[in-house]
Amino acid sequence: MLKLDDRDLKILSILQKEGRISKTALAERVNLTPAPCWERLKRLEKAGIITGYRAEVALSRIAAHIVVFMAAELQGHRAENFQQFERAVQRIDEIVGCWAVGGGFDYILQIVARDIDAYQRLVDQLLDNGLGVQRYFTYIVTKPVKQSKAMPIDVLLSSPELTQKE
């Protein structure tokens, strides 16, 4: 694992919230000159810590849609069953997130569809394609409450005794 110092962490924290910040402004914010800041940025990218840059799109301003979370359980629990399902999920654009989980279900999927009918057609496709979905539960999002734009780097890297307040 790449050793990160406070400046690296600050760079990551800033970029998560302000991905379009100029290199000069980023360097100023982390108290470096542009060249060393750029070198750090390239090192973080090369190490795979920074995996990309993307725009946040206000989908509701472009098209009507629904967001659905689906809990899915597979019939078979052999490695090839999971691999087949995961390969299929990668090919379906409406599935925007998928997590393998423990504790009763095998996967939690986040799906964005035009409407409930489009969602049901996608479910039918999953069931008809021989992917081994035994059962599933649908949870329709009625409103977003929190969608973090940044991972809690500071919290994850701080010592527990400093974060627990009594």
Structural features, described:
- By secondary structure, this protein is α+β, with helices and mostly antiparallel strands.
- The chain folds into two domains: 6-55, Winged helix-like DNA-binding domain superfamily/Winged helix DNA-binding domain (Arc Repressor Mutant, subunit A, Orthogonal Bundle); 59-140, Lrp/AsnC effector binding domain/regulation of amino acid metabolism (RAM) domain (Alpha-Beta Plaits), CATH 3.30.70.920.
- The protein is built from seven helices and four strands, in the order αααβαββαβαα.
What is the percent of helical residues? 25-40%
CATH architecture descriptor name of the largest domain: 2-Layer Sandwich
- Strand tally is 4
- What low-confidence regions span 5 or more consecutive residues with pLDDT below 50? 162-166
CATH topology term of the largest domain: Alpha-Beta Plaits
Main sheet makeup: 4 strands, antiparallel
SSE succession: HHHEHEEHEHH
Number of helices, where a helix is a run of at least 4 consecutive DSSP H or I residues: 7
Instruction: Label the structural class.
Output: alpha+beta
- The largest beta-sheet arranges its strands as 2-3-1-4
CATH class of the largest domain, named Alpha Beta
The name of the CATH superfamily of the largest domain reads: Lrp/AsnC effector binding domain/regulation of amino acid metabolism (RAM) domain
Based on Cα principal axes, name the global outline.
elongated
